[in-house]
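Quick log. Single chain, no ligands specified.
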Amino acid sequence: MKVSAENRCRRLLEQLSRYIDDELTATERRAVAAHLARCPCCQTMADSLKHTVEVCRKAGGARLPSDVKSRARARISTLLASGPVPRPRT
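-> predicted structure:
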C-alpha cells in the first residue's frame, strides 16, 4: 500500500516532538531525518518546534523575583476567596 505525501507528513508530525526530545529508536530517527531532508515544509515545522522547546526550557530555568511571587500569591488568594469565576457565554 502506497502512503501519500500528506499521510507521511501527518505521521512525521506525530513523531516530531519525540524526535526533538531524542526519544525515538535509531530506525525511527533516521526515517524522520530522511523525511525532513526532502520536505521543506516539515523541516520548517521541526525548526520552529525545536526553537520553541529551547525557549521554553530556558524560560523554565528563570527565577521570579520574590516581590513578583508575593504579588502573584496574593492575587491568587484573592481570586480563590472570591469564589468561582463565571464562564463566558459562547
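The chain has four helices and no strands.
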